[in-house]
Amino acid sequence: MLHAAYTVSRRTLLSVGAVTIAAAGAFASWVGPPSALGSTTLPTVITQPPQPTSGPGGSDYSHDDWRVSSGGSGNDAWYVFEPIDPQPASAPLAIVMHGYFEFSGYAQMYEFIRHTVRKGTIVIYPRWQTDVANPCPGPFDIEPCMTSAMNGIRGALSYLQASPDRVQPDLDRTSYFGFSFGGIITANLANRYVSLNLPEPKAIFLDDPHDGGLAGFGEPALDDSMSGIPSTVKLECHSGADGVISEPGKETSSCNALFPMLGHIRKRNKDLVLTHTDDHGEPVLSSAHGVCTAPAGMADAYDWNFCWKVWDALRSCADSRTDCRYALGRTQKHRSMGAWSDGVPIIPLKIRDVAPIGP
To answer: What does 218-230 look like in DSSP terms, one character per residue?
Structure first.
């Protein structure tokens, strides 16, 4: 079976389990023998930092809500998310691609999408899969999934452009995000954007891209060359220390397979990064497959201090050359994940400009 990109990610399950176990242990140690009751105080629980109030990844949203529309059918279906309250006449465009095994809805990337939209960006979310091996059998023949994703993007763009009552996408400010198998699709779409007549990618963020390994290690579902990706793009590729590259034989998979194909992009415009699992506090911050996935209400400090921060900053850097230090290079603003409630820094981001990267 493919390395699953479940609707509820492994990160979420790990965090929930850690909270339950830690809470039980803390309660047991506090209660102690009956004679201790009434004389012992609750232990201090170390917690994650809250979402920043401003800046990349921050809660200073320019829009209070979103409008969700859907269309297309089967594997060519799509969702469109528009910023409203207030509604702008136009907005930058982001194309967000889910991972394998999300057959319906958008629960997998809910928090990521909502953050992006409320920051003032239209999101197109192609619904490129309806069942296992439908429309494509993973890495054995990725082309049907490529076609469905492309059709979803085109259908959503046509929907927006058909009515002046909709927020109009600024195609000159287009960014791409892809998780897991969706990251492989995203890389190929960005590589073929000219021949597919898709918007030019100005920023690309890939979260643990992986084709499943069923056709061999090293992501064979990727195009043989990535020279079609613009050399000026701002790009970050993330692997988790407990994600794909932690599996036996897959050390050269995920971003380690893609990054050597990006030699035409200047080092200052791209980074290969690694998160680590940090269990210093509660809930645990996991680096398992799905760091940037979060269903509604399940976002954590790795979302706002890494995924959302880098995503916001990559797009700002590509658009106006601002906030680049939060998304590129070995800067403190890029590496920092914030600190636990007791002041201990969260394990910082590991950053490289050449492959491979590893724990």
So the answer is: S-TTS-S--TTS-
